From TrEMBL:
Residues 64-311 form the Calcineurin-like phosphoesterase domain. InterPro entries: 5'-Nucleotdase_C, 5'-Nucleotdase_C_sf, 5'-Nucleotdase_CS, 5_nucleotidase/apyrase, Calcineurin-like_PHP, CpdB_N, Metallo-depent_PP-like, TAT_signal. Signal peptide: none annotated. Residues 1-12 have a biased composition (Basic and acidic residues). Its main location: other. Keywords: Hydrolase, Metal-binding, Multifunctional enzyme, Nucleotide-binding, Signal. This is 5'-nucleotidase C-terminal domain-containing protein. It catalyses: a ribonucleoside 3'-phosphate + H2O = a ribonucleoside + phosphate; a nucleoside 2',3'-cyclic phosphate + H2O = a nucleoside 3'-phosphate + H(+). It comes from the Bacteria. Belongs to the 5'-nucleotidase family. CDD domains: MPP_CpdB_N (cd07410).
């Protein structure tokens, strides 16, 4: 499946015991290469996207800009929740250790002095490795404080600059500033301003001098832009401290300044997608995904390294409306799966250098080995986190399984709904929406998920939530809840209910021969927090007319009653095309990872007792209201 933005295919099913293998020692499922052979294997052709040879004459030169984005805490090609080498349906590899191999090979081919390395943000959040050094053994800048693994890896590779992503703010500004202090290159964000002074809270840009065969150096300006959605998603961390104006507005301010300061080439590193859209509606005057608008509306930009959308864009061209110039956009997917290579040919003029030709390509990390030095530098931290993920964090009084969650109300899904709703209720205290009753939605993501009776590990809990979704709350009415449930009930086949059915006979699964079915992750179960929401799904009826006996605390649900609905970011942003929620008022959005909320709840409570949160609130019925028999 593909989930919007921060969701993923990062499956967290059962794994081998810790200690059997590490990222550094795992046997690869593929042949891996290094150096020039690695470049050939990933399809890199020296000079690709720019026809001229590296040096044609003293009047011509070539600059290479390498780029990553949305690394999300990935150093090794490792799935911490499976406790094994990372793999997905397309056999991508991930992590800075593999990117480092590609970078070294490019520098060897193109020359270290004429190659720059940049990133487009979302670096310190997304894996247990990143979380561990933000929350469990946090970096704090004091004596004995660890170096964040993403700082150590990026310093080892030798980045020249990085833009801030929205997830950099997830752990608070203090953690962000400490991480910044550990970097050997600048963090850039022209549109992150100090709330009191209105001045930049980070460097807006940097101008790097690239030395080429004894001539005047080529001055490459790198402008960093982050996402205005930070003001909403991390309001708790930034309100009153920083503001985040629009990307177009700040680029229009700083690109001319960079030109005045002698920048021959201007590259923008923007944590903002290329397709105009927004996950927060009209809550802010500035668009979330605005890289194309920056290219179209701000003269003087040569290329944009795009981030945030987790898309693969080898090369895209946008015409600037004022100059008619073609601006290059490229986005190297996510997690270190790809490395962007921007090839820039320039010509010497009387006053500096002029762009002749520019192009880009993406290199794939999945055929190269991990860089030995990065592995050596980070192995100790990695092994510590492997032990943490496999550590016992609590216990469960009764085993919980998701095996029948698609056809029965089970405790495993009730647990997810309970934790989500409880987090929303706590967040709304002291606000104008404090009195709203809370409902929650959860999907049976992983039928193999199970919490055992007895000791529970981090991996056990994480198996319930196999996607990197974050939690929101929106305001909905009783009538909208009914519409939502009717939409969800499309998941089931229409049957008369006259016999016993196997699970797969009841669901409209998506297959090659039935593409219009509904995958498990798009079947939502709705539950109340303090008061019960109960309903029947009559599978003898056609889709759109199946919800029966919809009641809230025993009474028929009032269509006008308002609720706070706990929901994940994929669903709220339109994933699954559910009604109402994409346009509903957002009450809460701190971009807290739902998987981590579950883990944190177990750590805090120590004991999972299904009796405290699990009730039978929904069932499948036939036309006479009796339950369907399921084998």
């Amino acid at each position: 499946m593909t989930e919007h933005n921060l969701a993923s295919e990062h499956h967290l099913a059962s794994a081998t015991e810790p200690g059997a293998a590490t990222a550094a020692a795992a046997t690869s499922r593929r042949t891996v290469l290094t150096g020039a052979a690695a470049l050939a294997a990933v399809g890199f052709v020296p000079g690709a996207a720019a026809a001229a040879p590296r040096v044609r004459s003293p009047r011509h030169a070539r600059v290479t800009v390498l780029g990553t984005t949305d690394l999300h805490g990935n150093v090794f090609n490792w799935d911490y929740f499976k406790n094994t080498e990372y793999d997905d349906s397309k056999h991508n590899d991930i992590g800075l250790a593999k990117i480092a191999t590609l970078v070294k090979a490019i520098r060897e081919d193109r020359g270290v002095s004429s190659t720059l390395m940049i990133d487009a943000g979302d670096t310190i959040q997304g894996t247990p490795l990143a979380y561990y050094y933000a929350k469990v053994d946090p970096i704090n800048g004091g004596a004995g404080s660890p170096v964040h693994p993403m700082a150590a890896a990026m310093n080892e590779i030798g980045y020249d600059a990085a833009a801030l992503g929205n997830h950099e703010f997830n752990y608070g500004i203090d953690v962000l500033r400490t991480w910044q202090s550990q970097l050997e290159f600048p963090l850039l964000a022209a549109n992150a301003l100090d709330a009191a002074s209105g001045l930049p809270a980070f460097e807006p840009y940097v101008i790097k001098k690239v030395h080429v065969h004894g001539e005047r150096p080529v001055k490459v300006g790198i402008l960093g832009l982050t996402n205005p959605g930070i003001a909403i998603w991390d309001r708790a961390n930034v309100e009153g401290r920083m503001t985040f104006p629009g990307l177009v507005e700040q680029a229009a301010k700083y690109v001319p300044e960079m030109k005045r300061r002698g920048a021959d080439i201007v590259i923008v590193s923007a944590h903002s997608g290329s397709k105009p859209s927004s996950s927060y509606g009209d809550a802010l005057p500035y668009p979330e995904n605005a890289s194309s608008q920056v290219a179209e509306q701000v003269p003087g930009i040569d290329a944009i390294l795009v981030g945030h959308a987790h898309e693969e864009i080898p090369e895209k061209w946008v015409t600037n409306a004022k100059t008619g110039k073609q601006v290059l956009l490229t986005e190297p997917l996510k997690w270190g799966m790809r490395l962007a290579v921007l090839t820039i040919d320039v010509e010497r003029t009387r006053t500096g250098w002029r762009l002749e030709k520019i192009g880009s390509q993406l290199l794939d990390a999945n055929t190269v080995d991990e860089d030995r030095q990065v592995v050596k530098t980070l192995t100790d931290q990695h092994e510590k986190v492997v032990s943490y993920v496999n550590s016992v964090i609590g216990s469960c009084t009764t085993a919980m399984s998701a095996q029948r969650a698609v056809v029965e109300d089970v405790a495993a899904i009730d647990f997810v709904n309970y934790v989500q709703a409880d987090a929303v209720r706590s967040a709304l205290k002291g606000t104008a929406d404090e009195a709203l009753p809370v409902l929650s939605i959860a999907a049976p993501f992983n039928r193999d998920a199970a919490i055992p009776a007895g000791q529970v590990t981090v991996r056990d809990v994480a198996g319930l939530y196999i996607f990197d979704n974050t939690l929101l709350a929106v305001k909905v009415t009783g009538a909208q809840v009914r519409d939502y449930l009717e939409f969800s009930a499309q998941y089931f086949q229409q049957v008369d209910g006259s016999r016993s059915y196997a699970i797969d006979e009841l669901i409209r699964a998506t297959t090659a021969t039935a593409p219009n079915g509904t995958p498990d992750y798009n079947y939502d179960i709705v539950a109340g927090l303090d008061k019960r929401l109960t309903y029947d799904i009559d599978v003898s009826r056609p889709a759109g007319d199946r919800i029966r006996n919809l009641r809230y605390e025993g009474a028929d649900l009032d269509p006008a009653q308002e609720f706070a609905l706990a929901i994940n970011n994929y669903r709220q942003s339109g994933g699954g095309n559910y009604p109402h929620v994409k346009t509903a008022p957002v009450l809460y959005n701190r971009q807290a990872e739902i998987r981590q909320l579950l883990i944190d709840w177990v750590i805090a409570q120590q004991t999972i007792d299904p009796a405290t949160f699990s009730t039978d609130d929904w069932q499948l019925v036939r036309g006479d209201g009796t339950p369907i028999q399921i084998s």
